[in-house]
Amino acid sequence: MGRSASAAPAVMVEVEDVVVRISNPDRIYFPGVGPGAGVTKLDLAEYHLSVGSGMVNALRERPCMLHRYPKGLVGQPGIEKVHQKKVPSGKPSWVETVSVHFPRFDRDVDELCVTRLASVIWAVQMSAVEFHPWNSRRADVERPDEWRIDLDPGPDADWARVRRVAGVVHEVLDELGAVGYPKTSGGSGIHVNVRIEPTVTFADLRRAAAAFAEEVRRRAPDDVATTWWRKDRDPAHVFVDWNQNTRDHTVAAAYSVRGVPSARVSAPVRWDEIDDCVPDDFTVLTMPARFEALGDLHADIDDHPFDVASLVEWAARDEAAGESPIPSAGSDHGAP
């Protein structure tokens, strides 16, 4: 990786049975990363090819928002990041979409719906760096099939604390009989994905996630926060962000690159690796070899669906006791 930033002709990339044209292949997206001038647009395409089956597994059939960086990594002077929900016009016919409704604006939007690797490479051509899928699939967008546990460290929380909280999460999941699939967030935290039966609403999944978060807090009160308002949290605590299970809230997919200077990725890890890894272990430079050696650590997630009914019961218990971290009806909880 790491080519010259000078102008270069487009590169044609063959993916499955289609050819994707990569324009400006030498545009630098991550300056200073790697042996040359930095990671280029073509490097990003090659990265996604190298982890292709894992990326498609994480995105398959899900509405997907893109974080696009038309001129490269955010932070360069004059560069803006674009949060792209609507698929750009002029897409190839083989790029599939799914229509989702946004009540706040009373409009329907066609979002990218990945069913094949070529669609991922096309999105890279459209300057996408981050892929943020919904936790529901297009067969029934209103019924989530993935519960997401987001361990979001406060500004004074170190990685050791995140690791400890991950261990408690694993313990509670095991007791529930739920199979969790951890990954680094690509930032400073950890995500754990759990496949669930698509039988509950987003509102009930959010309630269930909040009840789970409260149980983790009870077991690790010196490390965990669940309260919604940031001002009420200890900055050294890890927020178990139950609100990520709200409709249209998304997190970076497994294998997604993140828009941070080191070109980290959101990397699936085994539970027994968490104590020995740090987020910077997983970048666009290191992940291809790891993927080749280990394959997709989330490959069998669909084989282990969990029924969240027991957690919905926990939620009802906590609500009755006044212990739910979800703000009461009518309060403003749109922003922490």
Order of helices and strands: EEEEHHEEEEHEEHEEHEEHH
User: Whole-Å distance between the termini?
Assistant: 40 Å
* Class by alpha and beta content: alpha+beta
Count of individual domains = 2
Contiguous uncertain segments of 5+ residues? 1-6, 330-335
The CATH class of the largest domain turns out to be Alpha Beta
Q: Helical percent range?
A: 10-25%
Q: CATH superfamily of the largest domain, called what?
A: DNA primase, PRIM domain
Number of DSSP helical runs: 7
The CATH level-2 architecture of the largest domain is identified as Alpha-Beta Complex
- How many beta-strand segments? 14
Radius of gyration (CA) equals 20 Å
Protein name: DNA polymerase domain-containing protein
Organism: Nocardioides yefusunii
Pfam family, one: LigD_Prim-Pol
Domain DNA ligase D polymerase: 40-298
Give short descriptive properties of this protein.
336 residues, alpha+beta, DNA primase, PRIM domain, five-stranded antiparallel β-sheet, five-stranded mixed β-sheet, 7 helices, 25% helix, globular, disordered N terminus, disordered C terminus, NHEJ_LigD, LigD_pol_dom
Explain how this protein is built:
This protein is α+β, with helices and mostly antiparallel strands and about 325 residues long. It has two domains: about 1-135, DNA primase, PRIM domain (Alpha-Beta Complex); about 140-325, DNA primase, PRIM domain, CATH 3.90.920.10. The protein has seven helices and 14 strands. It has helices at about 40-50, 50-60, 115-125, 160-175, 200-220, 285-295, 310-320; strands spanning about 10-15, 20, 30, 40, 65-70, 80-85, 95-100, 105-115, 130-135, 145-155, 180-185, 190-195, 225, 240. Strands 5, 6, 7, 8 and 9 form a five-stranded antiparallel beta sheet that branches. The chain has a five-stranded mixed beta sheet with strand order 11-12-10-14-13. Strand 7 (about 95-100) and strand 8 (about 105-115) form a beta hairpin. Helix 1 (about 40-50) runs antiparallel to helix 3 and helix 4 packs across helix 5 (about 200-220). The two termini are about 40 Å apart. InterPro entries: LigD_pol_dom, NHEJ_LigD. This is DNA polymerase domain-containing protein.
